[in-house]
Every structure is written in C-alpha cells, then in structure tokens.
Design goal:
alpha+beta, Alpha-Beta Plaits, two-stranded antiparallel sheet, single chain, 2 helices
Length: 79
C-alpha cells in the first residue's frame, strides 16, 4: 500500500516562488494562476492525488507556508 499524503499551503505566507513546484518528486504542485494571495502573489496548490507526504516541498519553502500531512499506515494483524 503506497503512503498517502496531503499538503496545506497558507496563502498569507506563500509568495509563489515555485521552489516547491520544482522540488516535488511527484510533480503534484503548481501555481494557481487564477488566484492572487492578499500579498498579490499566485499561490501554490496541490494538483494531483499523488502526494506521498515526503515533506520535500515543506523543507524547501523559504516562507514555511507549507504544512505536510501523512496518512498513518494501518498494519494488518496476522492470525
């Protein structure tokens, strides 16, 4: 079972620098060109369901605008 993840991007801090877009190994982040943040930037958005919660985007974000969530693995009991 692949690990699932998700991200939350805080528009108050995202400045649309695209570092997370370039760093995402799943190619799952893009700028929302139809949206402007309160500071006048196009914010990043998760655009695919392929997020694994690897945290690379959160690590490279200079504004700490990305929070990464990972789905807990459920272990099956043998028996």
């Amino acid at each position: 079972m692949p690990v699932r993840g998700s991200i939350q991007i805080d528009d108050m801090y995202c400045k649309g620098c695209e570092l997370c877009v370039a760093a995402c190994p799943q190619h799952g982040i893009a700028l929302a060109m139809d949206v402007l943040t309160p500071r006048g930037y196009h914010p990043a958005r998760l655009v695919t369901e392929n997020c694994t919660g690897c945290q690379v985007c959160g690590i490279v974000c200079p504004e700490a605008a990305i929070t990464v969530f990972r789905q807990a693995k459920v272990l099956a009991r043998g028996g």
